Structure formats: structure tokens, C-alpha cells
């Protein structure tokens, strides 16, 4: 499947295009691994200045590494631990402007400087988290948070129907 790479002047246009392409790859399959692998690829391809994009999925009470793009990462994260575990515990989006100033951050790639983690939740079911890292400090603003929460919502709705 060809997802044309495009870059835009505004985040509004970027997230609108991202949402179209995510919809396309998710509608293409019923398989969880295939859908999330393509979703991670689309996020990594279309959002500028990232060094990691992927999923941690809730399995037997622990967050387990799922499909991703970027360097190898820690394979299990207990709920409450690190930025991902905090998002899973609180069920709220976590934005870390500077990971060097965040005691709770679990470093996977030393190039990471800022991070956003969005819970994947739908109708009371919690699936895991979407984790995105950037080599730029303060890469994620409110527009990114809103765009990625919409993306996470679409992914959660798709996961709910697997
Ligand atoms: N930094 C994360 C761990 C996962 S890696 O960034 C991919 C955390 O603190 O939860």
C-alpha cells in the first residue's frame, strides 16, 4: 500500500492528512499487529522531527511493547512506571517538554528530548498507550496533543472492533 509522503506548512493540515492515511491503513485489515504496525509507520513517516513512534499494549496488567518505528525499546513497563506507565495509571495524556528534567522518564533512545504519551481507551476498555518521542525539546504543543488524541481515538475505536 502506497502512503504518499507529504509535508505541510501547518499542523492543522498535517494532522488532517495523518488522520486520512491512518483511516486508510486501519480499514485495510482486521489484524491487530498489521493495523498497528502500519499506524506506527504512518505516524513516523508523516510527523516531522520524531525518533520513535509506537505502541505499548496492556497484557496481564503490564504494558508490553507493540508495533513501533525507531530504536529497540524496553519491552515491558509496569503501570505507574515511566511516562507510559503514568499515562496508563492516570488514563490521561502525558506531555514531557524535556525528558532530561523528568525523573520518571525511562530512557530508550538517548536522542529523545521530548515525549507525548496518549492513552488508548474506548467505552471503558483500556488497550494501552501511543508513545511518540522527538529529538527536539518541547516538540509537542497543544495542537499536537489534540491531533494525536484524535488519532488515538480512531485507533482505539478500531481496536475495540477487533
Ligand atoms: N520513555 C518511555 C519509555 C518508552 S521509550 O520512550 C520508547 C517512558 O518513560 O515511559
Describe the structure.
The chain has helices spanning 11-27, 32-46, 82-90, 142-160, and strands spanning 52-59, 62-70, 76-78, 94-96, 114-122, 125-134. The relative contact order is 0.17. Strands 3-2-1-6-5-4 form a six-stranded antiparallel beta sheet, with helices on both faces. The protein is of the alpha+beta class. The protein is 37% helix and 26% strand. The chain contains four helices and six strands. The mean pLDDT is 96. The chain has one domain: Beta-Lactamase (2-Layer Sandwich). The protein binds methionine sulfoxide (SME). Methionine sulfoxide binds next to helix 3 and strand 6.
Per-chain topology:
Elements: H1 11-27, H2 32-46, E1 52-59, E2 62-70, E3 76-78, H3 82-90, E4 94-96, E5 114-122, E6 125-134, H4 142-160
Antiparallel strand pairs: 1-2, 1-6, 2-3, 4-5, 5-6
Structural classification:
alpha+beta
Percent helix among the residues? 25-40%
* Distinct small molecules bound, one entry per kind: methionine sulfoxide
Q: How would you characterize the largest beta sheet?
A: 6 strands, antiparallel
Number of strands: 6
CATH superfamily: GAF domain
**Strand line-up in the sheet with most strands:** 3-2-1-6-5-4
What is the architecture at the second tier of CATH? 2-Layer Sandwich
- The portion of residues forming beta strands comes to 25-35%
Total of helices:
4
Identify the notable features of this structure and list them briefly.
6-stranded antiparallel beta sheet, binds methionine sulfoxide, 162 residues, 37% helix
Amino acid at each position: 500500500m502506497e502512503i504518499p509522503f507529504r509535508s505541510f506548512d501547518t499542523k492543522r493540515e498535517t494532522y488532517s492528512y495523518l488522520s486520512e492515511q491512518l483511516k486508510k491503513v486501519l480499514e485495510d485489515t482486521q489484524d491487530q499487529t498489521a493495523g498497528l504496525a502500519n499506524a506506527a509507520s504512518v505516524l513516523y513517516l508523516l510527523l516531522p522531527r520524531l525518533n520513535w513512534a509506537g505502541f505499548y499494549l496492556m497484557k496481564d496488567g503490564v504494558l508490553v511493547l507493540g508495533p513501533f518505528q525507531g530504536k529497540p525499546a524496553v519491552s515491558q513497563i509496569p503501570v505507574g512506571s515511566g511516562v507510559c506507565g503514568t499515562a496508563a495509571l492516570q488514563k490521561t495524556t502525558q506531555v514531557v517538554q524535556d525528558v532530561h528534567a523528568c525523573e520518571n522518564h525511562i530512557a530508550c533512545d538517548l536522542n529523545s528530548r521530548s515525549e507525548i504519551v496518549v492513552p488508548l481507551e474506548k467505552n471503558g476498555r483500556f488497550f494501552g498507550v501511543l508513545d511518540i518521542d522527538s529529538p527536539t525539546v518541547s516538540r509537542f504543543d497543544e495542537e499536537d496533543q489534540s491531533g494525536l488524541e484524535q488519532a488515538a481515538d480512531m485507533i482505539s475505536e478500531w481496536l475495540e472492533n477487533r
